[in-house]
Amino acid sequence: MARQKPLKLYRNIGIIAHIDAGKTTTTERVLYYTGKKHQIVDVHDTKDGKGSTTTDYLEQERKRGITIQSAAVSTEWKGHQINVIDTPGHVDFTIEVNRSLRVLDGAVVVFDGVAGVEPQTETNWRLADQYNVPRMCYVNKMDRIGANFKHCVDGIRNRLGANAVLCQIPLGSHDEFIGMADLIAGVGYIWNSDDKDSTWETIPLDQIADHPKVKAFQAAGDREWVANLASLREQSIETAVEMDDDAMDAYLSNGDIPSLEKLKECIRKGCVAGKLVPVFCGSSYRNKGVQQLLDGVIDYMPYPGENGGISMVDEDGHIIGEQEVSDDAPVRALAFKVINDQFGTLTFTRIYSGVIKKGDTLQNVTRGKKERVGRIVEVQANATKEIDEVRAGDICAFVSMKETETGDSLTDPAHPVLLERMRFPDPVISVSVEPKSRNDIDKMSTALYKMVKADPSLKLEVDKETGQTVLKGMGELHLEITIDRMRTELGVDANMGKPKVSFREAFGQTVEHTYTHKKQSGGSGQFAEVKMVFEPGEPGSGVVFSDEIVGGRVPREYIPAVQHAIEVESRQGQVAGYEVLDFKARLVDGKYHDVDSSALAFEIAGRQCFREAQRMSKPKLLEPIMSLEVVTEADYLGDIIGDINRRRGSVSDQGQKGPQAFVQGFVPLAEMFGYINFLRSATSGRGTFTMIFDHYEEVPANLVDKLMEKEAK
C-alpha cells in the first residue's frame, strides 16, 4: 500500500510543561477543535472518578488531577496529520518527558501566564536541548488573576536562554483577556465570548486600539502592550528576517517587509534549526487561542526528518552515521515506551525509516533477539485502532512483543544497526515492598518486573542481608503511584515500607596501596600483586580506570580483570555499602608468576586493593541534595525559610511570581520525607512545592552515624 499522506504533512509533537500549566487542558481543546472528540472534559471535573480527559485516563490521574504517564493521540488539522504526546509535569515522572522528547520532532512548551518559567520547565527545556528538539512556546492562562505576559517572556529569554520571537501578544489579561494580536500576520483576534464554539473578529493591527473592548482595559500594562503594537511587530519582523540573508538585505536596504508567507518561512527556518523560538499566547480553559496555536504547529514545527534523522551508534555509543527519515531505506525504529496491563504488552515505537507490515520479523539489535510483528495499532490514549502497516515518520504501538524494552533498536534483520539510546536518571529514593499475603509473593514479583520493564527510572533489587525486595524510584509520589498501579492494572496488592535515601560514597583523599594475593593449596597456586593509586575525582566524572603499567610488570591479558574488579567493587563501598562515585583508579605497578598467575588472581587482588584503599582514604558518605522551590502567599515565607534552615537546607533565591511569593533553595533529601504535610499545615493548604535532584554532597561527619541508624530502621 502506497503512502497515504506526504511526509511534509506530518507533525510529531509533544506538549511539555511544569505541573499545572495546562498541558492536558490544551490537549483536550486540540482534540475538540480538530474534530477528534465532540465534548470537552476539564481536569477539575475528573476527581470524582466518573469522567476522564482523553489523555489522563488512569484512575490515579483522575483522582489527583495530574498527568502521570505520557499518552499519545493522533488528529488532523487543515490536511496535516498531527501526532500529539501529552506528557507529565511532575518532577517524579520526568522519565516520561525524556523518552517522549527522544522520538518527537518538535515540542510545544506550555507556560502558566502567572508563574512563568518554573523549575520543571527548565528541566524539560534542558532535555529538549539534549535531544535537539525544536520548540515553540504557548503562554497559557492569560485569564488568571496576576497573569503577566512580560514576566513570562523575560523568563523564556533570560532563564531559558531562548531567542524568543513574539508571534502573538495578549489583548488584555485576567477577566479582560479578549484575544491576541498576531504580530506576524498583522491582525488582531478578538473573541465574542468564552464559549467553546465562540467565533472571533479579525481586525487589522492598526485598528485594535480603537476597538471598544480594548478601550475599556483597566490595567496600565495591558494598555501599554496595545500602544506598542507597531514597534513590537517591527522587532518580531527583524528577528525573523535574520534567518534569511535575502530577506534581511531587502529589509535593511529598502525597508521592504517580506510577505506573510516569507515571514513564516523565515521563522520556520529558525525554529527548525533551533535558532529561535516562536511565542504564542491564549487561555485553553476559556477556549481562546488553541486554533491559532494549531496553525503555528503547522507553520513552524518540523515534519519528520526536516531537522535531521537519528544517529546510528556502535556498541560503545559512538556515533557512526545518521539514518535519514525515508520509506525507501531499511527498517529502523526505536521502542520508546512499554505499557503492561491485564490485556498484554503495548510497545510504543517511532519508525525512522522503512515500512513495517503485520507479520514482518524485526531484529532487536539491543538484545540480539528477533521479534515478530503481530498486531500494529494506532493509539488514541487508552483506545487502539488496528492498522496494517506503518512507515517512516509514524508513531505506533506493537502488541505483545516479548523481548523488547524501552530504548531498544528494532531494525531490518538484513541491516542491523543500533540507534542512539535514551539517557535515564538514576533513582534517588527506595522503599521495601512486600505482598499483602504470603500467597501473593510470585504475583508481586511478576507485577514488579512488569512495572520496572515499563519504567526505566524504576530499579528493583533484593537486599542481601534482609532478603527484602527493594524498589527504587525518583520520589515518594513516583513509588506510591507505582504500587497503586500494580493494584489497579495488574490486580496485585502490596505493602510499601518507609522510604529510604540512596546515599553514595567517595574517596576522602588520594591513596597509594599495594595488595598481594597469594594462595597455595596443592598443585598450582594463585599469585597476583597490584600497586594502585586511587584519587578522588570531580563531581560527575564517574569511575576512571588508567593503565600505567610499563615494562610488562603485569601482562596485558590480566589488566582487564583488574579493571573489571574495580568497576564491580565500586558498586559497594566500605562506609555503609553504597556505590562509590567519582574516582580515578591508576594501576601503576605489579608482579606476576609464570605458573600461578591468572585473570582470576588479578581480579581478586584488584578487589581487595580497592576495599583496603577506600578504608584508608578516610572515605566520605554523600547524600542527594534536592533543588527545592516553594510557592505560597508572602505571609508564610518566614515559616518556610525557617523550616528549610532546620532541615539543613540553604535558601538561594526568593521573590514574587505574580501575586504569589516563592523561595528557592537546596535541601538534603533525607530531611524532606513527608514535607507536603508540613507545607499544608504551615500555609493553610495554599502552598505548593517542586523538588528535583541536583547533586551529591558530603554528609557532615557528626551526622553520619545518626543518618545510618535512621536508614537501618
UniProtKB/TrEMBL annotation:
Pfam families named among the record's database cross-references: EFG_C, EFG_III, EFG_IV, GTP_EFTU, GTP_EFTU_D2
Binding site for GTP: 17-24, 86-90, 140-143
Major subcellular location class: cytoplasm
GTP-binding in keyword set: yes
SUPFAM superfamilies: EF-G C-terminal domain-like, P-loop containing nucleoside triphosphate hydrolases, Ribosomal protein S5 domain 2-like, Translation proteins
UniProt subcellular location: Cytoplasm
Domain Tr-type G: 8-306
Keywords: Cytoplasm, Elongation factor, GTP-binding, Nucleotide-binding, Protein biosynthesis
GO molecular function: translation elongation factor activity
CDD domains xrefs: EF-G (cd01886), EFG_III (cd16262), EFG_mtEFG1_IV (cd01434), EFG_mtEFG_C (cd03713), EFG_mtEFG_II (cd04088)
UniProt KW Metal-binding keyword: no
Function: Catalyzes the GTP-dependent ribosomal translocation step during translation elongation. During this step, the ribosome changes from the pre-translocational (PRE) to the post-translocational (POST) state as the newly formed A-site-bound peptidyl-tRNA and P-site-bound deacylated tRNA move to the P and E sites, respectively. Catalyzes the coordinated movement of the two tRNA molecules, the mRNA and conformational changes in the ribosome.
Family classification: Belongs to the TRAFAC class translation factor GTPase superfamily. Classic translation factor GTPase family. EF-G/EF-2 subfamily.
Entry-linked HAMAP family: EF_G_EF_2_B
Full protein name: Elongation factor G
Species name: Dyella ginsengisoli
Lineage: Bacteria, Pseudomonadati, Pseudomonadota, Gammaproteobacteria, Lysobacterales
